[in-house]
Amino acid sequence: MGDRSIGRGVVCLVVGLAFGCSTGAEGDYDGPAPSVAQPADLVAIFANASVEHGVPEELLQGIAWAETRWTMVWPEPGAHTHGLPPAFGVMALRAERASEGARLIGASLDDVRTEAAPNVHAAAAWLARTAGELGIDASDPLEAWAPVLEAYSGIDDPVARTLYADMDVFGALRRGFVARDGEGQVIGRVAPQRIEQIEVPAPVAVGPIGRTTQALDPGPDYPDAVWRASPNHSSRPSGSPGDIQMVIIHSCEGSYAGCWATLTSSSSGVSAHYVVNADGSEISQMVTEARKAWHIGATYNCSLNDDTRCNLSGYGSNGFTVGVEHAGFASQTTWDSGLLDESAKLVCDITEAYGIPRDANHIVAHGQLQANRTDPGANWPWQAYIDLVRQHCGDTTFSEIVVDDDDANNDSTVASFSASSSWIASGYSGYWGSGYRYASTQPISDTADFWFYLEAGGDHTIDAHWVAGANRSTAAPFLFYDASSTLVGSTTADQTTNGSAWNELGTYTFSAGWNRVALSRWAAAGSVVVADAVRVR
Hints:
The protein is an alpha+beta fold. The chain has eleven helices and 26 strands. The longest helix has 18 residues, at about 115-135.
């Protein structure tokens, strides 16, 4: 998992491997990130843009929800856009829509990309101009704006374009939604809207929640999916390198319709076995599990995965994995609970079918196995997600706990971190989560504390994750305390080596309640100790 976090334009086809050789716009952006990840004043921004540009407020809100969950997204390094230009801001503005929108409102392209208000206004101006060209007015019913949404989607496939409008955007508006920030606080509500179904250029059926979808066969391996066949697949290799042994989690870096349209296009040269839509209400299967989908462009290196399955090192990762894509962006702050739950059901089914262990080294991020990728991003809730997979499979064994140095990444019910201001935050590459802390070594009682909660006492193995470097301590002191603050063990670790990986520290007896792993600064002076993450298993 490592830094569980996936840029270049036209995707090239590599036989048996994909997603690793793009060129052009996708990876070229090196400008600023958004000023804020999820603005709190979006409701007012949508309202102002609606009035100024004559675009229905609900339409702006629906696009932002379908695309980004009201998050200021941007193409973080390693964010894979499947050959599309990178997307920016709440409205996921890409390429011409971003530059033309900036021109229409007289703003700089950087402001449109990184500030919420210019981003929404630029999108509204582009939508208004396109509506005017098509003879559509703000007083028309929302369904009349479908051709404008289709143009906004940037999708070539005519069915996918229409379903982007009718299922992704209008579907969200028909159901209504509540938008929350990264802390779970409500920042906006949209009530269910009355929107007429629009005609899709293919046989259609009305689904159970009133959306329009294609009348497709169920997935051949997962009946709860719909079958949208991709031509981009090949045979798995013989022997162990072709036996399904892991599931790779991806983010689409875009909408559901745009994602499956790309993955089923012969010209893209990429595919995945499955893609889950933004709220989990639909899953597409595109490649049978028996075949190799082209979803990761890397040979396997077990050192990137805690030395798991090292017999597979040097073999193409596509050969022994199942790839699951998810509508959304690696840079978004939250993931819909419906998406996570339905994805977990799917992954449970896959792990049961092939006897795959349900742990962090067999259900992995694209960014874990391919060093130049980061999807599905730092905010994918790994611990809760794997717990969901286990719950759907009826597992009753202890679920591992990961404690990050950034409490925003922790499940507050079982994990917490604390440290004094002497522990300095850093973001140098190779960390777990979203950064790490470090402090100079000296004879002082000043620990970085990784707290974890146990329902029942017992023996548990502790692993630590750090970013290695020449200035690290060769004997970083780790102390282990049970819930009564009794020291139950200690050890030292050489942090000059084995970085960006989990390192076993030993097995100790802990008690029910809040236990603690403390990293001390009390070591030979002249170096630093790194507090990144601790895993309890």
